[in-house]
Amino acid sequence: MLELVDVRRVFRVGIESHVALADVSFEVGAGERVGIIGESGSGKSTLVRLALGLDRPDGGVVRYEGTSVAEMGRRDLLAYRRAVQWIGQDTGGAFNPRWTVRQTMMRVNSRLCGLSREEATSRIEGLTARMGLDPALLDRRPGALSGGQRQRFAIVRAVLPRPRLLLADEAVSALDVSVQAVVLNLLREYCEDEGCALLFVSHGLPATAFMTTRILVMRAGRVVESGPTAQVLRDPQHDYARALVDAYTYSEDA
Ligand SMILES: Nc1ncnc2c1ncn2[C@@H]1O[C@H](COP(=O)(O)OP(=O)(O)OP(=O)(O)O)[C@@H](O)[C@H]1O
Ligand SMILES: [Mg+2]
């Protein structure tokens, strides 16, 4: 479904150039949940921006359903914007502060979904309840919600257009640990029930292991290891992956 082939991205800052991604290739199949772990600066968010079509590669190609994202026409691009949704670290904070959450959701509906008012209301309230939130919270402004509530609404907003792929970039990192577990559970359940694919980006191995069936390990702009989640956990090949797994195992023992 999503396919990156030899993707390269080089940033120029002054006279220096920095290779943020070097020949990265991988695929996310329909309904598949794939994790990307790697230290800060390894290129994870750069990769997500490319997958969203917000940035263009300097080499290689990003394809969605076989079509290069960089060469999509208006129609393809609109369908792609609907099919691929993003949840960031504090996406909830990006809700318009002057609007109620419901107004923001209705706006997303008219831009991307085109449901009637009644249909949209029932879908929005249904998803809100499914994320464990009281639908009465929809009539609040984002400033009157907790960070965890806002982030759950960010998920509601992302899944409203029935995406086929969700890109979650540190989607729970800003939340309290107890809230993280709840939100991860809801997100995974949603993906499983709807057959929605997930690209889950995180620093943390435990969350990534829980969320995915396949993991890519990135280091300095390269994929240094990839395989089924269980296999990477059992027998990590690369030093960096091994260090992550050791730290994980240690904290599990503690
Ligand atoms: N617009 C930009 N201009 C210049 N350099 C950039 C730009 N965006 C990213 N970089 C550089 O590219 C590298 C990869 O950044 P990226 O944000 O993809 O890392 P990351 O893996 O998401 O890190 P983190 O875990 O901290 O979020 C970094 O060295 C960063 O400084
Ligand atoms: Mg990042």
The top level CATH class name of the largest domain = Alpha Beta
Unreliable stretches, pLDDT < 50, 5 or more residues? Answer: none
Question: How does the major sheet shape up?
Answer: 6 strands, mixed
Examine the secondary-structure arrangement and name the CATH architecture of the largest domain: 3-Layer(aba) Sandwich
Radius of gyration: 19 Å
Strand element count = 10
Estimate nothing, just give the exact number of structural domains.
2
Q: Indicate the CATH topology of the largest domain.
A: Rossmann fold
Derived structural class: alpha/beta
The CATH homologous superfamily of the largest domain corresponds to: P-loop containing nucleotide triphosphate hydrolases
The small molecules bound here are: adenosine-5'-triphosphate, magnesium ion
Strand order of the largest sheet: 6-7-8-3-9-10
Q: Give helix % range.
A: 40-55%
What is the average of the pLDDT values? Answer: 91
| End-to-end separation | 40 Å
List the helices and strands and how they pair.
Blueprint: E1 2-13, E2 16-28, E3 33-38, H1 44-51, E4 59-64, E5 67-68, H2 74-83, E6 84-87, H3 101-113, H4 117-130, H5 147-159, E7 165-169, H6 177-194, E8 197-202, H7 205-211, E9 214-219, E10 222-228, H8 229-234, H9 239-253
Parallel strand pairs: 3-8, 3-9, 6-7, 7-8
Antiparallel strand pairs: 1-2, 1-4, 4-5, 9-10
Helix pairs in contact: 3-4, 5-6
The protein binds adenosine-5'-triphosphate (ATP) and magnesium ion.
The site of adenosine-5'-triphosphate has 13 residues, from strand 1, strand 2 and helix 1.
